[in-house]
């Protein structure tokens, strides 16, 4: 099929090939889009991260129509990176798909091999980690924390680093030790605020955030999920404060902290009566 015909195809079975053809056309040095031609892995990476978060946002809102579109945007990011790699002679999209397929088959011997499926999800997770550790060893990543991507969001990376260390026994045996550490780190932040430089204060705040991620892990709470929920709650309640002010013909700029704090409490009470 000619490329132009494929680009305009409505055949459901051709949509992946159609998307790849569209990407090739956008990156064509002579007839493509100047913006797409100029892009590099580095310039596209922030969009890739953003699209992943927009997928998570659509899931959080249970908006399936939006999720369909956001998954398409995220897929296009993979296609974009693969096309740039193809242009540079590194690999193409088929190589990406084959690598992923090979990995999934190798990591699921209880589905695609001879291993029994008669084991718990926890045991399958443990087996998965053993397989991944062997893969890292094959890549000369023999150290415990090798392979935890530097580009991950800091909170998520903290959790992953801590999980890796815990696998080799470097972990507090009980959550009470984590809580004690939080109190210690919080006190160090207060001391640093009064006596140390901004850089040292930043370091102490980082230590406190790191141990907070550890608390979430010990409580089996996903810190990213918990913080997203806290962000959403803060936005919802602050907008409630704005609504109450608007009913008085005012904006936050016309108010003060005492008034807004009282309205905040009113919004909280209203939520308990009629949960959002």
UniProtKB/TrEMBL annotation:
| Keyword Transmembrane among UniProt keywords | no
Q: What is this protein called?
A: Nucleoside triphosphate pyrophosphohydrolase
Q: One GO molecular function term?
A: ATP diphosphatase activity
Q: Where is the NTP pyrophosphohydrolase MazG-like domain?
A: 39-112, 180-238
The family database entries (Pfam families) matched by this protein are listed as: MazG
For this UniProt record, the keywords arranged alphabetically read as follows: Hydrolase
Query: Which SUPFAM superfamilies does the entry link to?
Result: all-alpha NTP pyrophosphatases
Q: Which reaction does it catalyse?
A: ATP + H2O = AMP + diphosphate + H(+)
Name the GO terms of the biological process aspect: dATP catabolic process; dGTP catabolic process; dTTP catabolic process; dUTP catabolic process; response to stress; TTP catabolic process; UTP catabolic process
Concerning InterPro entries, the annotation shows:
MazG-like_dom, NTP-PPase_MazG-like_C, NTP-PPase_MazG-like_N, NTP_PyrPHydrolase_MazG
Q: Sorted alphabetically, which Gene3D superfamilies does this protein's record hold?
A: MazG-like (1.10.287.1080)
The EC number on file is: 3.6.1.8
Q: Which family does it belong to?
A: Belongs to the nucleoside triphosphate pyrophosphohydrolase family.
């Amino acid at each position: 099929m000619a490329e132009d015909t494929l680009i305009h195809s409505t055949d459901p079975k051709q949509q992946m090939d159609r998307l790849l053809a569209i990407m090739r056309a956008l990156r064509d040095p002579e007839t493509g889009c100047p913006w797409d031609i100029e892009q590099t892995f580095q310039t596209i990476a922030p969009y890739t991260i953003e699209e992943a978060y927009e997928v998570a946002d659509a899931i959080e809102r249970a908006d399936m129509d939006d999720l369909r579109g956001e998954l398409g945007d995220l897929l296009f990011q993979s296609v974009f990176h693969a096309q740039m790699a193809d242009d540079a002679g590194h690999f193409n999209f088929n190589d990406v798909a084959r690598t992923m397929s090979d990995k999934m088959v190798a990591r699921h011997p209880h589905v695609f091999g001879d291993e029994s499926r008669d084991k718990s999800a926890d045991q399958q997770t443990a087996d998965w980690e053993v397989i991944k550790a062997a893969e890292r060893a094959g890549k000369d990543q023999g150290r415990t924390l090798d392979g935890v991507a530097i580009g991950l969001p800091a909170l998520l990376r903290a959790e992953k680093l801590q999980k890796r260390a815990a696998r080799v026994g470097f972990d507090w045996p009980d959550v009470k030790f984590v809580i004690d550490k939080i109190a210690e780190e919080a006190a160090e932040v207060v001391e640093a605020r009064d006596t140390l430089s901004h850089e040292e204060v930043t370091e102490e705040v980082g230590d406190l955030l790191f141990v907070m991620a550890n608390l979430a892990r010990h409580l089996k709470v996903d810190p990213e999920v918990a913080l997203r929920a806290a962000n959403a709650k803060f936005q919802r309640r602050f907008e409630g404060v704005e609504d109450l002010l608007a009913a008085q013909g005012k904006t936050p700029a016309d108010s003060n902290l005492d008034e807004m704090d009282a309205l905040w409490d009113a919004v909280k009470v209203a939520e308990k009566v009629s949960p959002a």
